Amino acid sequence: MTVPSEEELAEYEQERPARRLRPALDRVISVWCAIISVGVLVQVFAPLPQGTQFYLVIFLAAILPITLLCYRGFRVPAFINPFKARSHDDPGVADWILALVALAVCVYPLFDFDGYLERRQAPSALDVAAGAVLLILLLEACRRTTGWVLPAFSLVFIAYAYYGGYLPYTWSLSHQGFNFDAIIAQFTMGTAGFYGTPLTVAASYIVLFTIYGAVLDYSGAGKFFIDLSFALFKRSRTAPGRTVTMAGFLLGTVSGSGTATAVSLGTVSWPILRRAGYPAEPAGGMLAASGIGAILSPPTLGAAAFIIAEFLQVSYLKVLGFAVIPTLLYYLGILLAIEIDARKHETSAAETSQDSALRLLLRFGYHFLSLFVIIAFMAVDVPPFKAVVYAVIIQFGLSFLDREHRLTGRPLFKALAQGTRSVLPVAATCATAGVIVAVTTQTGLGLNLAEIIVDAARGLTDNHTVVLILTVVLSGFAVLILGLAVPVTASFIIAAVIIAPALINLGVTRPEAYMFIFYYAVLSEVSPPTALAAVATSAITGGKVIPTMWQAWKYTLPAFLVPFAFVLTDNGAHLLGQGSFVGMVWTTVVSMLAVAALAVVTGGWVFVRATWLERAICVPAAALLLYLAPVTITAGICLLLVAVVINLVRRQRQASAEEGTLAS
């Protein structure tokens, strides 16, 4: 079984495609990226004595210039820019100038770092000028990697910080107002701006996991995970769908990107799904859902999970614990949808691998070891950034067990370079998102907006439960809409500082609020009308884009609704692994029944094809079950039983009718 080439994945590995550089320049950039990776790994065990902010300044100085070189700016006609070669996609003169200026303004604070920080309350003209240029370059780097939306958001927030003092003092959004010098100082000299939590997470956690993912991939783990999944299921009609689901889960530990995982998976598995009888649109939806599930699932969640750990000041292992039960419910929904689709589309078994799963496990099962090592180290309170470095070292040693994928000179160099290249758009996003965090902190905007959201809900009713439901629904829509335009990490950060306070003010705990936002930020990748993951898989299967989006939504529906369970009721906290073991068990079982009801609604099948009445009955059944209160659970189970009994009676009547037809 082969995996896609780097060229095939180029469009989906980052938020926007990077340049295709000439070999000579590409080697230079790769050497620089590999050096950064080595420096990041060394920093874990030999941190700079000047502290975290000093390291972040160096990290941004190393990352920002190559981001401006590796990602396209505005396209300039050749007759205006004669220095730009026509036969390749190298950066032009303007890009090199921007990169050099970026390097200069990034390293500027390092010449007198202590004095630079001491001038925060009264920055010099040079401090402000350098900070303003850095702001412009970060906005441009973010625009190149993710598009216009996040830079536009940032400009709106900057305008609010400057002009907010002119708003009437009776308005909730008014504040004292800040001059340009104070705004720039907050961005560059404090710990809530460019060098705040988002960039800290990118430079201390995310880059290490991208390096680990690259080492896994180049050592053959990605190929092994796909081959193993295809070897496990061979002879049932649901085997192809189960294979895709498991392969997506395993491959996501290497990729770290939901859309890239879906593309990798689709390239190798679509021919098998087609042979099994899956139409293009359901297959594309299944691939998209499986890819997205990879960044919702332990042991390696999406990048935003590291930010959750930092915001909550808890261990990353704790965040993994939050995700365990929702992950089980997510994949239960996919598996039930696979069972239903296999019957609806009358799929057949398809031979997926010539190798046995046991043989593959005995030969290449060592690839799982480094994943287990990460969990084991974090379980004994080893910080995740150290645990992942240990995993990198172990995976490097294990690579020599496979002659084809030994991480000797060139492969190791490529893995180190790819590790840093993968983090470029994330680092640009995190640094730019620092603008929003800084303004929100400086002006108190988060609390003000939270009050506005809650007051809007209270304007419709005084009932606390209804107010909470309205606020949660509005928050979910807001995160989804935000996620349609910006990457997952950026949408999470923005929503965490603006929307989370509204939920917390209504009694939702911080872990519940942040995990709710995390799930909706990730699910924006399969939400119509953009749904990048579904667009990518429809290109592979040849299916229609919009129907593929709706199929992906069908497969992921439990992930859209289960987060409501852990923010609307006290019992919902059990779904995040909080509370007693008995509480976690019964809430999981009840939620599984709710997921089964949702599968009937979206799939239209129980024992035989479900009627509109049976599907309609299952809608309130699922909602009542997910509320996780004794009264609603009882009512939900009764409704679900009614739908099941009606369907069972219909099946028996159909069977009797068929027997009568055969007898006659």
What does this structure look like?
It is a single chain. The chain is mostly helical and about 675 residues long. The chain is built from 29 helices and no strands. The chain has helices at about 5-15, 25-45, 50-70, 95-105, 115-120, 125-145, 150-165, 180-190, 195-220, 220-230, 240-255, 260-275, 280-295, 305-310, 315-345, 355-365, 370-380, 385-400, 410-445, 445-460, 465-485, 490-500, 500-505, 510-525, 530-540, 545-570, 580-605, 610-625, 630-664. Helix 6 packs antiparallel against helix 7 (about 150-165), helix 6 crosses helix 19 and helix 19 (about 410-445) runs parallel beside helix 22 (about 490-500). The longest helix has about 35 residues, at about 410-445. The protein is globular. The protein starts with 5 loop residues before the first helix and ends with a helix. Residues about 1-15 and about 75-85 have low confidence and may be disordered.
